[in-house]
Design brief:
four-stranded parallel beta sheet, globular, binds nicotinamide-adenine-dinucleotide
Length: about 230
């Protein structure tokens, strides 16, 4: 989903920095985007978003290259389908660290640049899990994604006066490695049949909403936008 969002933003005219703990994935996505969007300014970094020093380095290098940061998409996430009473403390911490603490660390690191330029757009990837309960993930994933919604509201309230808008996107089941790696084909088909729009979402359908929040949505902050084929209606 991150690659699709980066591609969409590059096509919309943004210079893009991709970061992933898997540096080769970020590099491959960056090469593809350079080809499609014809941009030279897209570059990739291997960064673990749970590591404060690595996040600082990422932000420093980005500002060195581009002068400022206008948009942050907090998209990295991990999920384990572990039953509640089987979740180890290490696994709990890993899921909360990537999905929630990483969002906090990256956001806190970019806010000074956004404040300086009195403009910012931060989009946090929550999930239907954060609104209700995860279809595939365990309690740690649901808790972390619900935490992302609370963090989004708190940041939105504090940062709006500095021109920084902060929103969450809550995808339902989207056809990515996360879903295919957790679910066999028969289970995916059964889920698809249960949705009002009877298929999985595509990454580009989430990316379109993210782009909207980074461009035209000038009076939206603290919101949680559902992109779930009607799976969850609140
Ligand atoms: N696919 C879905 O159905 C779905 C639904 C709702 C929410 N989401 C959320 O959307 C986001 C993207 O999910 P996806 O389906 O593309 O998953 P994915 O597994 O395909 O991609 C997630 C990426 O995050 C990276 N990552 C993991 N830990 C990291 C870390 N510590 N530092 C930096 N990068 C790290 C992984 O290497 C991977 O490339 C996640 O936050 C996920 O929880 C996904």
């Amino acid at each position: 989903m991150g690659a699709s969002i980066a591609n969409r933003l590059a096509c919309a005219g943004f210079d893009v920095v991709l970061c992933d703990s898997d540096a080769s994935a970020a590099t491959a996505a960056s090469h593809k985007i350079n080809g499609v969007a014809g941009r030279e300014a897209t570059f990739a970094l291997g960064t673990d978003i749970t590591d404060e020093d690595q996040v600082s380095l990422l932000v420093r290098k980005t500002i060195e290259k581009f002068g400022k940061i206008s948009v942050l998409i907090n998209n990295a996430g991990i999920l384990f389908p572990t039953e509640f009473d089987q979740i180890s403390l290490d696994e709990w911490r890993a899921v909360v660290d990537v999905n929630l603490t990483g969002t906090f660390l990256c956001s806190r690191a970019v806010v000074p640049s956004m404040r300086e330029h009195e403009f910012g757009r931060i989009v946090n990837m929550s999930s239907s899990a954060g609104r209700s309960v995860s279809t595939l993930g365990g309690a740690h994933y649901t808790a972390a994604k619900a935490g992302v919604l609370g963090l989004t509201r708190a940041m939105a309230k504090e940062l709006a006066a500095s021109g920084i808008l902060v929103n969450s996107v809550c995808p339902g089941l989207i056809d990515t490695g996360m879903v295919r790696g957790t679910c066999d084909h028969a289970r995916v088909t059964a889920y698809e049949r249960s949705f009002p729009i009877q298929r999985l979402g595509r990454p580009d359908e989430v990316a379109a909403v993210v782009e909207f929040l980074c461009t035209d949505a000038t009076y939206v902050t603290g919101a949680a936008i559902d992109v779930n084929g009607g799976d969850l209606m609140i």
